[in-house]
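Narrative of activities, Objective 1.

The group set out to show that a structural description can be obtained from nothing but a protein's sequence at a throughput compatible with the screening campaign. Below is one input-output pair from the validation batch, recorded exactly as produced.
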Amino acid sequence: MAALSIGYQIHFHFNPPNLPPLPTKFSSLSFTAKHPLRCHHIGCPKIYAPPAVSVMAFGSSREVLPPALDSSSEPPVIFDGTPKLYISYSCPYAQRTWIARNYKGLQEKIKLVPIDLKNRPDWYKEKVYPANKVPSLEHNNEVKGESMDLIRYIDSNFEGPSLFPDDPSKREFAEEMFSHFDSFYKAVISSFKEDTVNDGITAFDSIETALSKFVDGPFFLGTFSLVDIAYAPFIERFQPFLLDVKNFDITTGRTKLAAWIEEMNQIEAYTVTKRDPKELLESYKKRFLSQV
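Output recorded for this entry:
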């Protein structure tokens, strides 16, 4: 059986009408192709006509998510050789690492271990990660933390498509965007607490400008990367809160940001990690409006 492995977005065009429609992002699919498979991407049109094709693309997770472990739960076996990613389903920092894991197709390589942060088990701090935060990653008999470090680590130390470009100018800009995140976050949070959203307007204007840097795609570095992963979980939460509470639509007048959000919502590695917007909104209302 021939196999075509791809790590970038490809549009597939099938001649026979009886083949099932395919999503733009999927992890694996096997089917028999009796007609040529046309694969188009910039500068490289090709035709593949194998008798059977197993298409492997990255960016999907179809796993059954395990329940969150709480104070009554037994701990998993620590340092048994299986990499484990400890997360919370509701934590945006943990969501970063979850997206990176999914996009690289590591669902069977890195075990997901969700923790109930409201009733977290004692063994997590005592046996796994003394900082008692998520995310953390157990790998090679060590446990590492901090989401920004972990998405880099997962990208560098596991198989799958690279999430960091070789282009020096893009790598430099990526580092700028990593550094910019804290000021972006603080500005948006400030707008939650003030009568005006001036800080939020400035913050999202900076994102619109950043998304205009490269024209070879809708993402921060043109193609999907660690930068998109770093920002997506937070914009996912900021957008419904600002719209509902401040009547501020972050996409108004920001066509690049609107396109980015639309494209992000086509990446299943991300969408399977998303929370219900109503749930996020209520959570943020409890968290921030009580402080006003």
